[in-house]
Amino acid sequence: MKKFADMSIKSALMVATALVVTPAAYAQADESVAEEANANVIIVTARKKEENLQSVPVTVNVFGEQMIDDANIAGLEELSDFTPGFQLQSAFGREGDRPVIRGASNILFSEGKVGFFVDGIPFVGASTALDLENFGRVEVIKGPQSAVFGRGTLSGAVNYVSRGPVNDLGVDFELTAATHDQYEVFGRIAAPIADGLSGFVSASFNSFGGFYRNNETGERLGEETLNISGGLNYEADGF
User: Fold this and answer.
1) Of 132, 162, 192, at which residue does a domain stop?
2) pLDDT over threshold 70, residue 108
3) 59-64: strand order across its sheet
4) Looking at the structure, do residues 102 and 86 belong to the same domain, yes or no?
5) Residues forming a β-bridge with 201
6) Are 159 and 141 in contact (CB under 8 A)?
7) Contact assessment for residue 195 and residue 99, using Cβ atoms and an 8 Å cutoff
8) Range of the domain at 193
9) Can you name the residues that pair with 141 across neighbouring β-strands?
10) Is 239 within the bounds of a domain?
11) Whether residues 123 and 23 fall in one domain
12) I want to staple 156 with a disulfide (CB 3.0 to 4.6 A). Which of 101, 128, 171, 233 is the partner?
């Protein structure tokens, strides 16, 4: 009888222990799910304020730094290959890029239907000259955006979001080569300057030999692009 009594007591203790441990296990599982959910949250500024992508009532395709690196996306033209309903056509080299969103495109020498923005500020010039390495995120926003971004966004907008502040010195260097005498050199230096203040300077040079030759001179009809960029980021305490 004593042996059976000891076994009953041990069994009761094991059940009690299991009942005590189970809530803790559930709590740990809930914390893991919550952490995973927070890690998967994608923040966008499609309406000029930070919002969860899932709660934004517009169609937005977001490309972060990691995604751009993993897909080896070198420019906006390649980025458009990964975006349904978005194309980038070139009429006369890098200066004649024509973005197309949902079938509506920018016509040369007329008001555009697709607007380009850097941190929500209108960008005027060749969008293909912007180095994606300087940005932490690219947002392709589809549909009319005149209420948020103003005129020239009847079919959509492309918003480049700059990288955040840095706490340590960082140096990036890239060299790319391709057929038709094409190569590109890119360099970037970012560093903290003072408390809450950091900045960067970058430069790139792109040379393309071209597909055709001048029959008179025999020279290739190529193009060259030099781009120099810089920026400052300041974050005040208490804001």
Assistant:
1) 162
2) no
3) 59-64, 135-142, 156-162, 114-118, 121-122
4) yes
5) 189, 230
6) yes
7) no
8) 170-234
9) 60, 157
10) no
11) no
12) 101
User: At 35, is the pLDDT very low, low, confident or very high (cuts 50, 70, 90)?
Assistant: very low
Helix (H) or strand (E) holding 37: helix 2-39
Q: Are the C-beta atoms of 99 and 114 separated by less than 8 Å?
A: yes
Could you identify the residue written with the tokens 């490309």?
A: 63
Same domain, 55 and 100: yes
DSSP label of 50: -
Q: How many CB atoms lie within 10 A of CB 150?
A: 12
Q: Is pLDDT larger for residue 150 or for residue 21? A: 150
Alpha-carbon gap, residue 218 to 194, rounded angstroms: 54
pLDDT of residue 159 exceeding 50:
yes
Task: Specify the amino acid at residue 80.
Answer: S
pLDDT at position 217: 85
- Chain CA centroid to CA 212, Å: 34
Same domain, 105 and 153: yes
Which DSSP helix (H) or strand (E) runs through 99?
strand 97-101
Phi, psi dihedrals of residue 114, rounded to the nearest 5°: -125, 120
Instruction: Classify 214 as helix, strand or coil.
Output: coil
Q: How far apart are CA 92 and CA 8, in angstroms?
A: 87
| 90 in a structural domain | yes
Instruction: Based on the fold, state whether residues 30 and 51 are members of the same structural domain.
Output: no
Q: Which residues pair with 204 in a beta bridge?
A: 186, 227
60 contacts 142 by C-beta, under 8 angstroms: yes
Under a CB-based contact definition with an 8 Å cutoff, are residues 77 and 96 in contact? no
